[in-house]
Fold this protein.
Amino acid sequence: MLLAMSDLRRLRYFLAVAGERNFTRAAERLHIAQPALSRQIRELERELGVRLLDRTTHSVEPTEAGRLLLERGTALCEEADRLWRDVRGFAGGASGTLVLGYSMSTSYETAPAILAALADRLPGVTADTRLLSTAEILSGVADGTLDAGLVRCPPPTPELARTLVRLEPQGVLMAAGHRLAARPAVDPAELAAETVLLHAREANPGHYDAITALLARAGAA
């Protein structure tokens, strides 16, 4: 015997009545008229060929068959709800696997924060993470190998859409005894007399260009 949608609906009606132990409260909970609810329960009992509820003036009690249906029917409806939610999730992008590339510079705070938010808001999505260079990430997103990428200061790329997810302060690494080391913040102009070392431009052209432009505006390049 196949379970039709109408059977599932009547099962939910029965679960409400058995849970409330009262037709009036169950009807209010289901937002249907009490006579209609009583009729649906009678039809369910007739279809199954067994009495499911013992009715009294003020309450109802599940029979032995009703208790079995209450226990296993609850599990069945919960599984049906999960199935419907999971299947519908595909329409909204809420299920499946996200292939995400992230650069070393985002691996300390940004990537963990993004992944935690993803797990919290979209529990049906599995993240397939890959630690790559910025160039590899841009290439992977462009050719479809990656669904998305986390990088710092990506260069303008016509075929890719960019979204700002986080603003982070830039740090300057120096010896503990350096004259600027005790400062809570360093003005770029104060680096004019210093030798500033940056990563190679090909490692992250966007970040390299942003830093050199900042130093140039401050007269420190």
